Amino acid sequence: MYMLDLCSSFLEVQLNQYVPEKIQKRLINRRIVKEVRSAYENVPFYRKKYNEAGVDIKSIKGVADLKKLPFLTKQDIMDNFPENIVSDKEDIDKCHYSATTGSTGKALPFVFNDKTMSYYINTSLRVYTMIGYKPWHKAVYIKYTKVDSPNFGPFFRFAHVPSTISVIEQIKLIGKEKPDLLVGYASIIFEIATSVTAEDLKNIRPKMISVNSELSTKHQRNFVSSVFKCPVYDEYSTEETWMIAAQCRNDKYHLFTDNVWVEFLDRQGSEVKNGDSGEIVLTTTHSPAMPFIRYKIGDKGRACKDSCTCGNKLPVMTSFDGRADDSFILPGGKYVSSLKLLNTFTKYIKTHLNLIAEFKIVQEKKDLIVIYLVKGTQYREIFFKQLISDLYNILGESVTIKTKYQDFIAKNGSIKRKAVESLVRQGNSAMGMDE
Ligand SMILES: [Zn+2]
After folding, report:
1. pLDDT in tens, 346-396
2. Last residue of a domain, one of 320, 343, 378
3. Cα 112 to middle of ligand 1, angstroms
């Protein structure tokens, strides 16, 4: 069944990018209506919320009507998962379960059904075909967990490298796999690029690199490109909705509106003017088991009305200015990606959802990392000790990690609180922290 879904959505997703703009718009409206209605009919959270807000569900006829609907926040999901936020029609035990720490430092669980998962895998694949990936290429992706995808023999060969191991171990694994395409979190690939030797580069010769999941600067991408001598493309995705936008070979970001509708809103909740920065609000179109409707992801981005000459008809956006987590520079100059630290927490939260209620990782001095921790309802010392030992494996012994237990972690008022922060002045733009 899963295999069938995977093959049929492959064609659909590949063709979507060539559908003329006018038809594109009609299809988007139809998908939005379907997702919103199914959310209202099958998901208790939406039914209750929309009834309370006096929404006439029949009046939702397309993207223009989305503004009639209240927002979905991360807190809503945490408060309502799973009973009230997963569709009544779905057998949760048959769903793909996942969880993220976002970058807020709180555990956020969610599920997809087989169909959604297949669709998402194909939208990922489209990110790579857009930049020249071919089915016979070998791809290596760096992620905190392995994505469960079937075996197609000599085609679509994907190998997984954990994002939560030390950079030396990562380089060894990548060298063994010899990828044509390398995919991973921007800061982790940057960390690898700062650590590979000429000897390593004899085995690691990718044709292209795709970086994801967080804001990468042009400087970082240029650096990675100069080390591996191949183009580096950026994409924008979230764990909850998967692909949102990806760069084509013209370096323009195409919005994946066949997967998720994106609003760019000002403080009053109105759409921002063309080219202005706005808060990104997402609506999924293929996630009936757990729809995300007007989901405040906590990132910002700029819309635009440009088009692109690459042949891809999906609309273009200018940039996104999200993810503000800091990466660390340790004594001796070693660079450590903030995502690597976050992923280590995510790995534990995925298997022990209530181990941690909230956390924040702060580099207080070059050699001192403090973890502010609010224990979860099922906190167990033994698992947390393992987590700390994983962190030492990543950071090395030149630092001390201290844990400070708290009742809560204060917010500093920004739209997205940093879960990883460095108080050490880096003062070194060569590390690519400044645009
Ligand atoms: Zn393009």
Report:
1. 888 878 888 888 888 999 999 999 999 999 888 999 999 999 999 999 898
2. 320
3. 29
Question: CB within 5 A of ion ligand 1: which residues?
Answer: 248, 250, 252, 308, 310, 312
Residue 334 belongs to domain with CATH number: 3.30.300.30
Distance 155 CA to ligand 1 centre (A): 26
Spatial distance between the Cα atoms of 210 and 203, rounded to a whole number of angstroms: 18
- The CA 257 to ligand 1 mean position distance, Å, reads 14
Spacing, Cα 79 to ligand 1 middle (Å)? 40
One domain, residues 112 and 11: yes
Total number of domains constituting the chain: 3
With a CB cutoff of 8 Å and minimum separation 6, the contacts of 373 are: 356, 358, 359, 384, 403, 404, 405, 406
The alpha carbon of 253 and the centre of ligand 1 are apart by a number of angstroms equal to: 7
pLDDT of 435 reads 30
Domain range for 44 is 2-117+239-320
What does the alpha-carbon distance between residue 123 and residue 80 come to, in Å, rounded to a whole number?
28
The model's pTM? 0.81
> Residue 339 Cα, ligand 1 centroid: separation in angstroms?
28
The CATH code of the domain that includes 71 is 3.40.50.12780
DSSP-based three-state secondary structure for 317? strand
